[in-house]
Structure to design on (108 residues):
């Protein structure tokens, strides 16, 4: 297992671009103890470089936008097919995170 952080700055709605681990699946997203938004969506890139620069598009599961209902201090399981083929992601909150938010991404 390995972990990375993804931060939404105070007043923002989206994290920085996070390069995914090679040969490992994103298996969980852990939410912070303080969180304003009640749902998150993912934006993914298939052409990002090592710094995470690339084109990001909303992630869909079939014809449905992949959206997760969230609350504070939760560990949410991510099915492996959601990020398959992506090289980087960005997490977007449904609300401005007034004090910021740090998510933990768990890879396995």
């Amino acid at each position: 297992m390995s972990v990375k952080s993804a931060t939404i700055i105070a007043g923002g709605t989206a994290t920085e671009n996070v390069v995914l681990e090679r040969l490992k699946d994103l298996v969980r997203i852990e939410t912070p103890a303080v969180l304003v938004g009640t749902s998150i969506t993912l934006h993914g890139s298939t052409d990002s470089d090592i710094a995470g620069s690339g084109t990001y598009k909303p992630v869909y599961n079939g014809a449905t936008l992949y959206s997760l209902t969230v609350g504070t201090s939760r560990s949410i399981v991510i099915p492996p097919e959601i990020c398959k083929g992506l090289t980087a992601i960005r997490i977007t909150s449904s609300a401005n995170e007034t004090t910021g938010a740090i998510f933990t991404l768990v890879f396995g």
